[in-house]
Design a protein that fits this description.
Blueprint: H1 19-51, E1 59-63, E2 68-72, H2 91-102, H3 111-140, H4 147-176, H5 183-194, H6 203-231, H7 239-249, H8 255-273, H9 284-295, H10 304-337
Antiparallel strand pairs: 1-2
Length: about 350
């Protein structure tokens, strides 16, 4: 390191691959994760709708394994995929009946619109995280181990800032039952009436919802990966190590943050659908305190089993595909240099 004069800007070392290659790795991971996880959430939402039908204006959270999307319910729309008729006696029964009656493609209902936002958001998020982590490790010196915490938080700020207007427009289109042809009018009317800043309505609460979760996820992931590498006496993490680290950090450790995140998301979505200002009423800590007061400490771990079944594999698939993609490009670069 002392050999560098510091006169010329040198690219931060990101394990020998370019940002474009990181983007390709995260894009492939995003597509695979969405294809794997979406059927699980479609079944979950159909079971939810059967148990307590969604009233008009009510929101539910739809997840394709990468991003949580707020869906606004409309009245009397029997064509909506989440309102399709059917009586299910559990998850497996729902899978079988949906495929038998509606075809296997119905398990990916609602996927195309969410992919339009999920893939770019994931590409921005993962690429920014890697670039920031590498830069922060150099600058933080003895505190380099905390770099993933800060990098994860900053990367989430970037992806939320880019995606927030799209999510707002999508929520408004759903609540007003607008078509994609009317998209420009939806945007123009929002800008005309409330200014450009209105497109980022809900940005603050969304950051409060997502940033603590992201910071904890990446910190735990990097710690778990380093520990498993040390335990197995290897320098580079294997596919199994990244898979296990991603699954554990994405399920048990961050669960309280995810409970807070989901509660906030539904509130923000319903306010946006009604064209009301979505102000951040409280911090993550105060929402946690409220949940504990209402439901006890166990309230922070509500939905543990469904989360382990769905979110843990989603996190594991995404991160291991991403790491595999980066390893592939590193190997390719090594061979081309050789």
């Amino acid at each position: 390191m002392s050999g560098n004069s510091g006169q010329n800007p040198v690219p931060i070392d990101t394990n020998g691959i370019t940002p474009f290659q990181q983007m390709l790795a995260s894009c492939s991971g995003a597509l695979l994760t969405s294809l794997f996880v979406t059927p699980l959430d479609v079944v979950k939402i159909r079971l939810q709708a059967q148990k307590s039908p969604f009233p008009k204006g009510k929101c539910f959270v739809y997840c394709n394994g990468l991003m949580d999307h707020t869906c606004v319910c409309t009245n009397g729309n029997s064509k909506a995929w989440y309102k399709a008729p059917g009586h299910f006696n559990g998850t497996l029964d729902a899978f079988i009946k949906i495929v038998r009656r509606e075809g296997i493609k119905s398990l990916w209902s609602g996927l195309p619109p969410t992919l339009i936002m999920a893939v770019p958001a994931t590409v921005i998020y993962f690429t920014c995280y890697d670039q920031l982590r590498a830069a922060l490790r150099v600058r933080m010196g003895s505190h380099a181990e905390e770099a993933p915490l800060l990098a994860g938080a900053l990367a989430r700020v970037g992806s939320v800032t880019v995606i927030s207007p799209l999510e707002l427009i999508r929520t408004k289109m759903q609540s007003q039952r607008s078509s994609y042809r009317e998209l420009s009018e939806v945007i123009h009317s929002a800008v005309r009436n409330e200014g450009w800043r209105s497109l980022w309505r809900g940005w603050g609460p969304t950051l409060l919802r997502d940033v603590p979760f992201s910071a904890m996820y990446w910190y735990n992931y990097e710690k778990g990966k380093a520990w498993l590498c040390k335990h197995n006496n290897i320098r580079e993490p294997t596919f199994a190590i990244t898979f296990i680290s991603g699954a554990v950090s994405g399920s048990v450790i961050t669960l309280p943050f995810d409970v807070v995140k989901t509660r906030r998301q539904v509130e923000i979505g319903e306010l946006q659908a009604m064209n009301l200002s979505s102000k951040a009423s409280s911090s993550t800590l105060s929402v946690m305190t409220k949940i504990v007061a209402e439901n006890g400490v166990g309230g922070l771990f509500v939905g543990f089993l469904p989360r382990v079944v769905k979110v843990a594999p989603a996190c594991a698939i995404m991160i291991s595909c991403y790491e595999f993609g980066k390893a592939f490009f590193r190997k390719d670069e090594g061979q081309s240099c050789g």
